[in-house]
Amino acid sequence: MNVSDAKTPKPRPVRGLALGFGIVFGLSLFALFPFVRPAEWGEAKLRFRLWRAGAVAVRWEKHRGFTEDRCAGAAPADCPCVWFVHGMGDSAVTWRNFFLDPGSFDGRAVRLFAMDLPGHGSSLRRRDPSEYRVSRMADELNAGIAATAECRTNVLVGNSFGGWVAARMAYVAPGKFARLVLVGPAGVAASEEATKDLFREPSVESLKEFQRRAYFKPRELSDREWAAAAERMKHGSTGEIRDAQTPDERMDDKLGRIDVDTLLVHGEADRIIPRAVIDVYAKGLPHREVVTIPECGHLPQKECPQKLFPIIRSALPK
Predict the structure, then answer these.
(1) Taking a C-beta distance cutoff of 8 angstroms, is the pair 142, 173 a contact?
(2) pLDDT of residue 8
(3) What DSSP element (H or E) covers 19?
(4) Are 57 and 45 in contact (CB under 8 A)?
């Protein structure tokens, strides 16, 4: 058969149409995503901004997070690592202002890390509820820090539930941390009493109540944003994490054995962790200083970062 006799394959319009439909459908989903899942879209945008600012992804076996190298060529011994631990229902991006603002550490050589706790952000959700206990989280994070070769000097910062985790980390690993900063920490009996009525039944109203207690100036959100946040909480791991804690996890009888200089930071308008909780920590910790931030609530890293920056800087080794 001559080459000229061979039939030229005809284009298949069905495939072209399918491809076109797939592209249009995908673009439509992408365009609708911010409206259907506004909370997830907001988090994705923040993580993209962090990447643009120079933050690099950190991937441990079960944890995810990000880091930024501000050592400017300084040797590891002269460039302390600052580890940020977020609260329950939050994520590592709560610390974004420290990464996005180039003046947050006033030019000091530092290496920043923010890690998502289990069941939060990009970290893996756990099948075994016991892995949500504060003691297990503390052990996992300590192991990850110990395996980070470039970190010779470590400063640990925890907010709310993350303050509880951070306190436990310092308790079980004496000598690992140069300074400890606890921002509105939970983890004692008094804090459980103050928060026992929050989030038992995740709803728009319970979220609004949290906002009223957490902020000096509560944020304005649309009805759609409130509903999306409540729905996310219903399907999140907050309830599992809360229910996984046992009385043995509390720090009341352990504070006296945390042998590290500690800054206790209290937002004056914080009604999630009231001053009485800070007083319990202050009474129990052998080496502590209490700093109060006026006109600021439970989440100073979000509400008043410019007031929190110098406090965290003061925790760096001289």
Answers:
(1) yes
(2) 52
(3) helix 13-36
(4) no
- C-alpha 292/C-alpha 104 separation (Å) is 19
Which of 60, 251, 64 is CA-nearest to residue 169? 251
Pull the structure tokens for residue 122. 């990009």
Read off the pLDDT of residues 219-266 as tens digits, 9 standing for 90 and up.
Answer: 877 888 878 877 777 777 888 999 999 999 999 999 999 999 999 999
Taking the domains of the chain in order of start, what are their residue ranges? 53-314
**What digits encode the pLDDT tens for the residues 79-114?**
999 999 999 989 999 999 999 999 999 999 999 999
**In this prediction, what percent of the chain has a pLDDT beyond 90?**
65
The model's pTM is 0.84
For residues 302 and 299, give the distance between their C-alpha atoms in angstroms, rounded to a whole number.
6
Candidate CATH numbers 3.90.79.10, 3.40.50.720, 3.30.70.360, 3.40.50.1820; the one for domain 53-314:
3.40.50.1820
Say how far residue 173 (Cα) sits from the centre of its chain.
21
Q: Nearest Cα to 60, choosing from 6, 122, 134? A: 122
Burial class (CB in 10 A: 0-12, 13-18, 19+), 271: middle
Exposed/middle/buried for 102, CB within 10 Å: 0-12, 13-18, 19+? Answer: exposed
